[in-house]
Amino acid sequence: MTHIYAEVIGDPIAHSKSPLIHGFWLKALGIDGDYRAMHVAPDGLGDYFAARRADPAWRGCNITIPHKLTALDHVEDRGGVRGTIGAINLALVVEDGALIGTNTDVGGFYAPIADLDLADAPVTVIGAGGAARAVLFALSRIGVGPVTVLNRNVLKAAALLSTFGLKGQALPLGAPLPAASLLVNTSALGMAGQPPLVVDLSPLPEHALVYDLVYAPLETPLLAAARARDLDTVDGLEMLIGQAALAFELLFGTAPPRERDDELRALLGG
Ligand code: NAP
To answer: What separation in Å is there between the alpha carbon of 131 and the centre of ligand 1?
Structure first.
């Protein structure tokens, strides 16, 4: 088989953990392929896709900030992502040679909570950026109960509830949390270099699960507070590895060795 490769594109991109994840799986499976980080500025997106499309060894690319919306203009939207999630995290060369856009963040977010019975359950989401779109889309498909979205910019939170047809309320950051079965932080708060996310978890019931999408650091102040209250938690690496696994199978045609997740987490600092 010829040497094949895929990439992750973004601006900035040096911090991305995707090359480590995909590189670990490629090596584990003995696939003759590469997965690299590629810096692409917003005005270079068209040239990037034009150059890569001419290269038969290129299988596609993951897409991260700030290209998740604009990359849709450069791919075929066969799954109707524009009218639903509104953002892609993967451009993929398919069998007929077309370049299609898709989103594996939704499946990556959903996998760790797939066993929970969230039908009609109240859910709280913090943040209303790109990651929130994937989360709210997944919640709209699960059929959860009222969704409260807290965000610095409340108008963005209200707009997302409407976009995804979710019943609920938009509140400013700092408003007391309502009781909810699931609390998800999709904001950048708690990330290295950002202020911590300070919330009072006492309104959450004992069965509540706290899910933080932030993965650097892995043990965020939010997760520490949830553990101190004995609540179940899901950290950001679970979604990061989950979305990467779905992308890997699409890019390289075989499922990654998830039985080696512990080794991979250790490599990623978790
Ligand atoms: P984004 O589109 O830039 O959105 C950032 C969000 O954080 C917005 O809600 C923004 O509020 C809020 N925010 C940023 N700085 C803030 C501040 N100083 N005070 C209050 N709110 C602030 O980013 P994103 O793509 O959604 O990513 C958000 C986080 O999720 C990042 O930590 C990212 O690493 C993580 N993430 C993880 C995964 C995973 O697989 N685990 C996947 C995607 C993203 P405003 O709307 O008011 O600006």
So the answer is: 7
Domains within the chain, CATH numbers bracketed:
4-103+238-267 (3.40.50.10860), 107-234 (3.40.50.720)
Gap from CA of 189 to ligand 1 centroid (Å): 7
How far away, in angstroms, is 32 Cα from ligand 1 center?
Answer: 35
pLDDT given at position 270: 74
Tell me the whole-structure pTM to 2 decimals.
0.95
Taking CA atoms only, the protein residue closest to ligand 1 atom 17 is 189
Instruction: From the candidates 17, 68, 156, 167, give the one annotated as an active-site residue.
Output: 68
Percent pLDDT > 70 in the chain is 100
Structure tokens, 57: 């060894």
Each residue's pLDDT tens digit, 156-199 = 999 999 999 999 999 999 999 999 999 999 999 999 999 999 99
Q: Which residues contact 126 (CB under 8 A, 6 or more apart)?
A: 149, 150, 151, 173, 183, 184, 185, 186, 187, 189, 197, 199
